[in-house]
Each structure stands twice: as structure tokens, then as C-alpha cells.
Amino acid sequence: MSVLRPNLFRGSVAIVTGGGSGIGRAITYELLTLGCKVVIASRNAERLEKAAKELGEVGDVTSIPCNIRKEEEVQALISQALEKYGKLDFLVNNGGGQFMSPVESMSLKGWNAVVETNLTGTFLMCREAYNQWFKANGGSIVNIVADMWRGFPMMAHTGAARHAVVNLTQSLAIEWAEDGVRVNSVAPGMVESSTAAANYGKEANVFDVVKEYLPTKRTGVPDEVSSVVCFLLSPGASFISGTTIKVDCGSSLYTRLMWNIDNHDKLPAYQWIPKPKL
Ligand SMILES: CCCCCCCCC/C=C/C(=O)SCCNC(=O)CCNC(=O)[C@H](O)C(C)(C)COP(=O)(O)OP(=O)(O)OC[C@H]1O[C@@H](n2cnc3c(N)ncnc32)[C@H](O)[C@@H]1OP(=O)(O)O
Ligand SMILES: NC(=O)C1=CN([C@@H]2O[C@H](COP(=O)(O)OP(=O)(O)OC[C@H]3O[C@@H](n4cnc5c(N)ncnc54)[C@H](OP(=O)(O)O)[C@@H]3O)[C@@H](O)[C@H]2O)C=CC1
Q: Where is this gene product found (predicted)?
């Protein structure tokens, strides 16, 4: 079960981008079990609809296709969500992604695609949710970023975009404080989901490869990101805004240069959310 109390979010409404897969799906699942109504939004309408059907067994969920890179689609998403549920309490900007490439062979189109997805998409979602609802009613936003704290070789586009989102989070926390809006980010380390593994595991499963380099000697699970997102949305975090919480169990701090961590299983996963039926 969720570590948060039952019915904590009864009567609340959330939008979760990328809520039909991976980490976003886990966040949606946990919100639903806590009584929240959830709109999930992403590009692939068919996959989104299928996820909504499955998640519909847990609670009240609606799928609305949306490409967060497109301003008019973002505007329509927020207004359709408001039409459907009459209010908005939470926004989780989880939708995003990138491809692996060294900078020297990155095309401008590829760079722009990743920056538009992860930075501009987050900006558009925040601005529209604020203008259409949060400005008059308050609310809480969580942006999902990444472990880009020491640069992100092979993913420099996403590293730059995600770090920009951390700064955007800080600016918005101040600009919107007087309207009762809290804005925070969560930075996951290596979190294994079936979609992420499919994206990055073409030759070998990168999540298997990286295990030995992590202090936990295991990768994270989506449930471990979801619990932190739900906490940040909750009244328990009412004095937290403008911050970014790393959910990586120290992997962003660890190099083997000064300290070796032997293989162990002393930091097991907290996992309770059923995996999606594939
Ligand atoms: C052990 C090691 C640790 C490994 C470390 C592993 C990290 C794991 C931690 C992170 C995990 C996650 O983020 S998990 C989430 C992963 N999920 C995703 O990334 C899915 C979302 N990603 C995407 O949709 C795409 O990557 C993204 C580029 C953002 C959007 O793609 P679109 O096709 O919609 O974009 P378009 O506007 O059409 O532009 C596409 C252009 O992008 C470029 N492009 C797109 N894919 C490309 C590719 N594979 N290789 C080169 N270039 C590419 C080309 O220039 C394309 O143009 P043309 O040449 O003209 O086609
Ligand atoms: N797994 C990991 O180890 C880590 C993941 N992250 C980040 O966490 C988030 C979730 O990733 P994860 O669950 O692992 O992987 P997924 O691939 O399952 O999640 C990415 C989600 O984003 C949606 N999405 C991508 N582009 C757009 C767009 N332009 N508009 C709307 N939705 C979009 C996708 O749906 P659709 O294709 O239908 O649009 C998908 O649901 C991503 O931002 C990811 O980069 C960060 C650090 C580590």
C-alpha cells in the first residue's frame, strides 16, 4: 500500500503527463489509490487509452492525448481537464525523454526536439495550468527531471534541458507563492520500467549493466519515485517549494575512485504497484 493515508487526495484532481507508462503510470496509480481523480496525457493515444482502461479499475481516470511541445494542445488539455472535473489541484510534469548521442553528431533538429519536449513542454504545461486555474485557486506542481548533476555525457541535450527545469522550478516557486502554488522537482536516478528498458536496452539491458555502479547495487522502481511525488503534492510538504529532491539513493554522489561498495542487498526496493499488463 501507499505510505500515505487512505483518502488523502479524495476530491482532488491531477494531471500527469506521460501517465500511461513507466514512472508516470506508477504516480497515477498511487494518486488513484489515494482517492485523486487523474487525467493522463501523452502523444500515443492508443497506449494512453489502454492504460486508462487498466487504471480505471483503481479509480477515476481520463485519457487526453496531448503533445506537450504543442502550445494549442497544451491549452486544450488543461481546458478539457477543467471541463471534465471542474477543478485542478495537482500537475505532474513527467512526460519527457531523449535519445543517446554524443554532441558532435547531434542534429539541431534532434537537440530542439529534446529541449522542446523536456523544457518547453514543462514551461507550457506550468504556464497554462497557472493561467487557467492555479492563479485563482492555488495548487501544487511536481516536475520530473533526471540525474544530470555532474553533466550528462551522451545525453547533453536532456542534461541541459532538465537542469533548466530545476531553475524554472525555483523561479516559479517564488513568482507563484502569493497565489498559493508550490512548485518542486524530483530527480530520479536509474529507474527500471518496461518502457525505459525498451528505449535504452536494444543491445543489452542498461539497467542490468549499471547496477554495479550504484550504491544500492540495484536500480530504482517507479513506486520509489511515485511515493516522493505524492508526498510533495500532499499537505505534508506544505513548507516545501522550489526544491528538487533526488530519488537515487546516492548514485549522483558516488564514484568508485574514493570508495568501493561491494555487492549487497541491504537496500531493497519498496515496491507495491502492480506492473502494467503488456
Ligand atoms: C550504461 C549507459 C547508461 C545509460 C543511461 C540510460 C539512461 C536511462 C535514464 C533515463 C531514462 C529515461 O529517460 S526513460 C524515458 C525514455 N523515453 C523516451 O525517451 C521516449 C521519449 N523520447 C522521444 O520521444 C524522442 O527521443 C524525442 C527526440 C524526445 C522526440 O522524438 P520525435 O520523433 O517526436 O521528435 P522529432 O521532432 O520528430 O525529431 C526527431 C529528431 O530527433 C533526432 N533523433 C531522435 N531519435 C534519435 C536517435 N535515436 N538517434 C539520433 N537522433 C535521434 C533526429 O534528429 C530526429 O530527426 P530526423 O533525423 O529527421 O528523424
Ligand atoms: N527511467 C529512468 O531511469 C528515468 C526517467 N526519467 C524521466 O522520467 C520520466 C518518465 O520516464 P519513464 O517512465 O522511465 O519512461 P517512459 O518512456 O515510460 O515515459 C515517458 C513518457 O513521456 C511521454 N512523452 C514523451 N514525449 C512526450 C510529449 N512530447 N508530449 C507528451 N508526452 C510525452 C511518453 O508517452 P507518449 O510516447 O505517448 O508521448 C511516456 O509516457 C521521463 O521524463 C524520463 O525522461 C528521468 C530519469 C531517469
A: Peroxisome
